[in-house]
Design goal:
Elements lengths: L5 E4 L2 E3 L7 E2 L1 E5 L2 E6 L1 H5 L7 E4 L4 E4 L1 E2 L5 H4 L6 E2 L11 H14 L7 E7 L12 H8 L3 E6 L4 E4 L1 H7 L11 E5 L6 E7 L3 H4 L7 H13 L2 E9 L1 H13 L5 E7 L3 H7 L5 E2 L2 E9 L34 H13 L3 E8 H16 L9 E7 L2 H10 L4 E2 L2 H5 L1 H8 L1 H5 L4 H6 L5 E2 L10 H10 L16 H6 L3 H6 L17 E4 L16 E6 L2 E5 L1
Parallel strand pairs: 1-6, 2-7, 8-15, 9-10, 10-11, 15-16, 16-18, 18-19, 19-20, 20-21, 21-22
Antiparallel strand pairs: 1-4, 2-3, 4-5, 7-23, 11-12, 12-14, 13-14, 17-18, 23-24, 24-25
């Protein structure tokens, strides 16, 4: 056996292998795991050039793999105004929003005409209702372009300058699959836009540059991630990551999903499935509906609370119709492209299932593991369809904590308690993952793990005790199951001989601490391919 380059000793090594075994030490050679065993066994392998890390009882888990987030979309936000309400942030009032926007303007030395962004905006949880309008924004920032991005990342409130850029007026009709909210009693836009009325704004926002991308990659590494997703990348975002990784590999891998309007361009360019410097164009991303907290998720049973603008008998928004979904899925399958589809509501899930069946009936072949992203307000029969059709859902249990009380109001107890049914998915033999959707929610994987175990809202309500999972199952949803999502389960995602030497070193063991202590666990070191990419 070749002398190891690196050994980790005196640790609790949670391997996440099929047997659920633990060990004390690991040996690494040329970026791969070459031995797993006791400290004495592994120490005996050390040679003159071996680096020995004595972890003094800390816990080693596989490096976290991100099943769904938005690394390039999130990167520009960081220097702007974070507007999260408690428990994530401290925004409580409209006055707080305006103050933080002003601070961002001053911090970034914004000039008239420049962008000032707020992100994480969630008026439903603000003490004063938080209803910001274009008029309110213009009272302080009329000379700038201002956008408050809703926490769902599916809507925003913008000021008059941005409304003019978008050419939204009283005469502008709502686009199919979108909503331009009006000033009550008039047809004048209030500044609030949703879904297909929001997406044109997204492509006008200042894009990330290489410096911001690298800073964002370092932030993922700080939380123990060795791979991040870019979950709706236009060709400009794909090019940014590809060129950055080619010039100098990023500290983590990045998996880009080409946003569906650019799918044909990506196919023509021959980039899907290619990998350069840790950047892989993995598949395509569709958006079929909105968000449950924004009341735009598409559901078969109407919302208890009506729509976001007071609509009655409200079922949410279908962002694209069935015919377009069928066309995109068939195009992807015919070119061997893995499909990732944003489906929060059960009507959207039905739409994806129908599109898959239509594509197969038309003679197209799925490359396997179609990913319904979010899978929140869904029905039990749809999990059976996932099993039948080789779907691999990515779920979103942090919603039970941050938005659980809102979901109870919007959907009633039965549907709210079934949100992101991780337990049922596992029991049916699926390998679900669990994601942050950053920048929608914090990327901290220990918080994700904790929410899957406790499923408790900020108001103290357990949303579906029968959907709780064990800490080990929750860890699998952030490691080996994500490797499965990416068709990489044979090369990464668990601590086994022959796999990539990717580790997150934690200051406590999430499998043995009290459940509520899981969210307080810190990442003290991240190792990718045998090399430390973060150290606290």
């Amino acid at each position: 056996m070749t002398t190891p380059d690196l050994i980790l000793t005196r640790a609790t090594v949670v391997t996440v292998d099929d047997a659920g075994s633990t060990a004390e030490a690991v040996a690494v050679t040329d970026g791969l795991i070459t031995a797993v065993g006791t400290t004495d066994e592994i120490t005996a392998l050390a040679g003159e050039g071996t680096e020995v890390l004595d972890l003094e009882g800390r816990t080693v888990v596989p490096g976290f793999l991100d099943p769904h987030s938005h690394i390039t979309a999130g990167a520009p936000y960081i220097k702007h105004a974070a507007l999260h309400t408690p428990p994530v942030g401290d925004t409580r009032t409209v006055e707080d929003v305006l103050r933080k926007l002003g601070e961002a303007r001053d911090r970034n030395d914004a000039q008239p005409g420049d962008w000032i962004l707020g992100w994480g905006y969630y008026p439903d949880e603000m003490d004063d209702g938080g209803k910001v309008t274009a008029e309110i924004l213009d009272s302080e920032f009329a000379d700038y372009r201002v956008a408050l991005i809703h926490i769902s990342n599916h809507g925003a409130v913008v000021n008059g300058a941005v409304l003019r850029d978008l050419e939204y007026t009283a005469e502008t009709p709502d686009p199919d699959g979108g909503s331009i909210v009006r000033v009550p009693g008039t047809q004048e836009p209030s500044g609030e836009v949703w879904e297909q009325a929001f997406f044109p704004l997204m492509f006008r926002l200042p894009p990330a540059g290489e410096e911001e991308l690298r800073a964002m990659a370092a932030e993922y590494a700080r939380w123990g991630y060795v791979a991040a997703q870019d979950g709706a990348a236009d060709m400009a975002a794909v090019t940014l990551v590809r060129e950055s990784a080619t010039a100098n590999p990023l500290p983590i891998d990045v998996k880009s999903l080409v946003f569906f309007p650019d799918l044909q361009k990506a196919i023509d360019a021959g980039i899907i499935g290619t990998e350069v410097g840790g950047h892989e164009v993995t598949g395509t991303k569709l958006i079929l509906d909105g968000s449950p907290q924004g009341r735009t998720a598409h559901v078969t049973e109407e919302y208890v609370t009506g729509g976001p603008s007071g609509e009655q008998h409200w079922h949410g928004i279908a962002v694209v119709d069935q015919a377009e979904t069928d066309t995109i899925v068939e195009l992807a399958y015919r070119h061997g492209v893995q499909v990732y589809a944003h489906c929060n509501g059960d009507a959207a899930v039905d739409q994806l299932i129908a599109a898959h069946r239509a594509a197969v009936a038309a003679g197209a072949t799925s490359p396997g593991r179609t990913i319904p992203i979010h899978s929140q307000v869904m029905r039990p029969d749809q999990l059976d369809a996932y099993v039948e059709l080789d779907f691999a859902p990515s779920m979103f249990t942090i919603h039970t904590w941050l938005f659980g009380d809102t979901h109870l109001k919007n959907f009633g107890e039965e549907r709210a308690f079934g949100i992101s049914p991780l337990r049922s998915a596992i029991d049916k033999g699926l390998r679900p993952t669990n994601h942050s959707d950053f920048p929608v929610t914090p990327m901290n994987p220990l918080q994700l793990l904790w929410t899957a175990v406790v499923r408790r809202s900020t108001g103290g309500v357990v949303l579906g005790e029968n959907q709780r999972v064990t800490p080990l199952e929750a860890l699998q949803a952030l490691t080996i199951n994500v490797a499965y999502e990416y068709h990489e389960e044979d090369s990464r995602g668990s601590i086994e001989v022959g796999k990539k030497a990717d580790f997150a070193v934690l200051d406590a063991n999430p499998l043995t601490v009290e459940p509520d202590a899981i969210k307080e666990i810190a990442v003290v070191r991240t190792i990718k391919d045998g090399r430390t990419i973060f150290e606290a």
